[in-house]
Design a protein that fits this description.
334 residues, Rossmann fold, 2 domains
């Protein structure tokens, strides 16, 4: 897919939260293995060659179980002066300490708290920034659609979100205007959990009118970003954000979308990920891409919110059965 080749820029760590100058001894006196791992990953993403994509870095870190081990392997002493290596890791560590001081949290793909389902897909980000409560084994469904949604579409999304909350399922969306905003708002109003996957740095607000909603999700749910703090919204960010939403979720529900809606990217990525997609009859009737997808495996069509919940409920049960079958502890307790 085209979205899997788009690369975010990690040229340097010169973002708005740049730390004050520190000596090597000042920085490395903080004996925190998590910070060191995060620093190594940040340094890898900054120093990567054009031949090494962020996905390859994520795969290597996951295979080794340590970003620092990958850094040592890819930056051998014969190619990198020890002082230069210390400078690069120290700079990255200073940046992470500054982010932490500003209240930002990070997860590497090798972290035990990294979202389990997201780690299963090949577009899983090597690095995530979070605000709120991370639930590694979150049972979640994405509810997404057009920014220019109709009143009926927004109400449909709200009904689906409320029903998902009633089933104990987390509502995932992208904090965009329209369908996403309706889904987030309804989930919160129903006392449920919602996750916002944003296409900016986690310290930015986009769209600005959702500032209060984003803050509330950070308090009562989770805001998730794969982009460096300070990153402005860019067109190439949103397909990557869609891949993360699909990966995080056990299924994607597309409520309302046009022929050229960015939502179609998430539908195709979900199919690529092997995750179920639920299309409403409105989407099917109004777009050629939905007609092309309807015969693909695990693509479902629903006319009402009740049909959506019936389909999603069955998918959630199947997902739970698979999880129990693959888990020795789950098998033992079943």
């Amino acid at each position: 897919m085209g979205s899997s080749t788009i690369e975010p820029k990690f040229d340097k760590f010169s973002v708005s939260l740049a730390p004050r100058a520190r000596t090597h001894s000042d920085t490395w006196r903080v004996d925190d293995a998590d910070v060191t791992e995060q620093a190594a990953l940040l340094a890898l993403l900054s120093a990567r060659s054009t031949e090494q994509t962020r996905q390859e870095i994520a795969t290597n870190v996951l295979a080794e179980g340590s970003a620092l081990a990958v850094w040592r392997a890819t930056q051998p002493p014969t190619l990198l002066d020890p002082v230069e290596e210390l400078d690069q890791l120290t700079e990255a560590k200073q940046t992470i300490i500054a982010w932490r001081a500003a209240g930002l949290s990070m997860l590497t793909i090798a972290d035990d708290h990294y979202p389990t389902k997201l780690r299963e897909v090949h577009q899983a980000p090597a690095l995530l920034f979070t605000k709120g409560t991370v639930v590694p084994k979150d049972r979640a469904v994405a509810v997404v659609g057009s920014r220019n949604a109709s009143a009926g579409g927004r109400e449909f999304a709200s009904q689906v979100a409320r029903s998902l909350v009633a089933e104990g399922i987390t509502v995932v969306a992208g904090l965009a205007a329209g369908i996403d905003t309706a889904a987030h708002s309804a989930a919160l109003a129903a006392g449920g959990r919602t996750v916002a996957v944003v296409g900016t740095g986690i310290d930015r607000y986009y769209p600005n009118e959702n500032r209060a909603l984003q803050d509330q999700i950070g308090e009562d749910g989770l805001v998730l970003s794969q982009f460096l703090p300070g990153s402005a919204p860019r067109s190439q960010h949103f397909p990557q954000r869609n891949a993360t939403m699909s990966g995080y979720s056990l299924a994607t529900v597309i409520v309302e979308a046009g022929e050229h809606s960015g939502t179609r990217i998430q539908a195709r990525l979900a199919v690529e990920h092997g995750r179920p997609v639920v299309l409403t009859t409105s989407v099917l009737n109004n777009t050629d891409w939905a007609k092309e997808l309807r015969h693909r495996p695990r693509v479902h069509i629903a006319s009402t919110s009740e049909e959506v919940i019936s389909i999603v409920g069955e998918l959630a049960r199947e997902d739970l059965e698979v999880e129990r079958a693959l888990s020795p502890l789950g098998t033992a307790s079943a």
